[in-house]
Amino acid sequence: MLKSRNNKGFTLIELMIVVVIIGILAALAIPRFMRSTTKSKQSEAKQLLKQIYTLQHAYRQEFNFYACNGVSASATAPAAFAVIGVDVGLSARYTYTMAATATTFLCTAAATINLDDDATIDTWTINDQGTLLCTIDDSVL
């Protein structure tokens, strides 16, 4: 009498196919994940620059000039823009530098850390017209 074998499990070929599929999915997903985390980190600069724009205009309405010329604010100097009512958080990833005259200003946000482990350092600017511009984009692969 022959005993029938009850083969349960996966063959080596089936397991290797699954490993290849998982590798392909990871190769597609990891760069997208890195790009999306970088974009979320960039939101700090965009939000704070918009706040600086609004508060600089409020300051100019009251005192007839823009403030903080030559001043830089960062995690190590969070209250440098306190005169216009902006406080940079202690966990800030950017240094904010102001160049202002009586009638114009330009605030630049430069990343103090590399956002996605490449050689590019993220940089944003906003001017007295409200033009928010990414001059160096660290999220581009």
Fold and architecture overview:
By secondary structure, this protein is α+β, with helices and mostly antiparallel strands. The protein has a single domain, classed as Glycoprotein, Type 4 Pilin, CATH 3.30.700. The protein is 37% helix and 18% strand. It is built from one helix and five strands, in the order αβββββ. It has a five-stranded antiparallel beta sheet, with helices on one face. The radius of gyration is 25 Å and the shape is rod-shaped. The N and C termini lie far apart (66 Å). The mean pLDDT is 90.
Search tags:
alpha+beta; rod-shaped; 5-stranded antiparallel β-sheet; Glycoprotein, Type 4 Pilin; 141 residues; 1 helix
Give a short summary of the structure.
The chain has 141 residues and is of the alpha+beta class. 37% of the residues lie in helices and 18% in strands.
Q: Secondary structure elements and their pairing?
A:
Blueprint: H1 12-63, E1 72-73, E2 94-100, E3 105-111, E4 123-127, E5 132-136
Antiparallel strand pairs: 1-2, 2-3, 3-4, 4-5
